[in-house]
Amino acid sequence: VLVGAVVVAAGSGARFGGPKQLCELGGRRIVDRAVDVARATCDAVVLVVPPDADWTVPDVHAVAGGATRSASVRAGLAALGPAIEIVVVHDAARPLADEALFDRVIAAVRDGADGAVPGVPIADTVKQVDAEGTVTGTIPRDALVAVQTPQAFRADVLRAAHASRPEGTDDAAVVEALGGRVVVVAGLADNFKITEPADLDRAGAVLARRAVAP
Ligand code: C5P
Fold first, then answer.
1. Is the pLDDT reported for residue 213 higher than 90?
2. pLDDT by residue (tens digit) across 125-140?
3. How far is the CA of 214 from the centre of ligand 1 (A)?
4. Whose CA is nearest to atom 7 of ligand 1?
5. Beta strand segments in the chain, E
6. Dihedral through CA 23, CA 26, CA 32, CA 38, nearest 10?
7. Burial of 71 (0-12, 13-18, 19+ CB in 10 A)
C-alpha cells in the first residue's frame, strides 16, 4: 500500500507574529523537522507552502496553499499521485511528532479504519459557554480527547470528503461529516502545535530531554 503525506505549511502565523515554520528549533527549521518524519514513514511527500513563499525544502515537491487550512490540504491532495492509497496529513507546526506516531495512524488505516487521529487526554475541565460568557454546560471529560496531526485516511475517502470543499479545523472532521469511521490512536503529549513564541522554548526543552533520554 502506497502512503503519501501532505505537510501543510501555508499558514501566515498570525498568532505567532510571523512565519513560525521557518523558526529554528534545536538548530533546524520547524518545517524541516516535520518533513523529515513524513519522509521517513511515507512513500511520497508533498509540502504545501504559502503562495508567495521565498523558501523551499530541498528535494521535496512543494505546491502553493490556499486561504484556509482545508484549502491548503486540498492543494496537497491534488498533487499526490493516483496510486497513493493512504494519505497522512500533518501540520508543519507540529515539529515534535515522531515516526512511531506516524506509524500508528497509518497502521490503523491499514487495519480497516477510514481515518485515524492521535488523541491525548484533556487535563482541564471543558465547559460550554454562551455569547455572554455564561456557562451553559460541562462536558464530561472522560469522553473527550484532544486530537493532533498526523492524521491518516484512506485516500479515496479523504478525496471524497474534500470534494465539496468543506472547511474544518482538521481533516477528520470532514471525513466524519461524510459518515467515515475515524479511530483514535495514542497521541504524544509532546506533539503540541507551535502557536505562540513561548511554545518554541517549550519545544526546545522537549528536544533537550529527548537528547538525554536513554
Ligand atoms: O492556523 P493553524 O495553527 O490551525 O494551522 C495549522 C497548520 O495548517 C499549520 O502548519 C499551517 O501552516 C497550516 N495552514 C496552511 N494553510 C492555511 C492555514 C494554515 O497550510 N491557509
1. no
2. 999 999 999 999 999 9
3. 34
4. 91
5. 3-8, 24-25, 28-29, 44-49, 61-64, 86-91, 115-121, 126-129, 135-139, 145-147, 151-154, 182-186
6. -130
7. middle
Separation in Å, CA 68 to CA 4, 164, 166: 21, 15, 10
3-state secondary structure 34-52: HHHHHHHHCCEEEEEECCC
State the sign of the Cα–Cα–Cα–Cα dihedral 149, 155, 161, 167: positive
Pocket of ligand 1 (CB under 6 A): 8-11, 21, 48, 65-69, 72, 91-93, 193
Q: What is the grid cell recorded at 212?
A: 538525554
Side-chain-side CA neighbours of residue 9 (13 Å): 34
CB 23 within 8 A of CB 30: yes
Q: What is the atom index within ligand 1 of the atom nearest the CA of 20?
A: 12
Most ligand 1 atoms within 8 A of CB, residue of 8, 22, 165 to mutate: 8
Model confidence over 90-103: pLDDT tens digits? 999 999 999 999 99
Q: Is 98 exposed, middle or buried (0-12, 13-18, 19+ CB in 10 A)?
A: middle
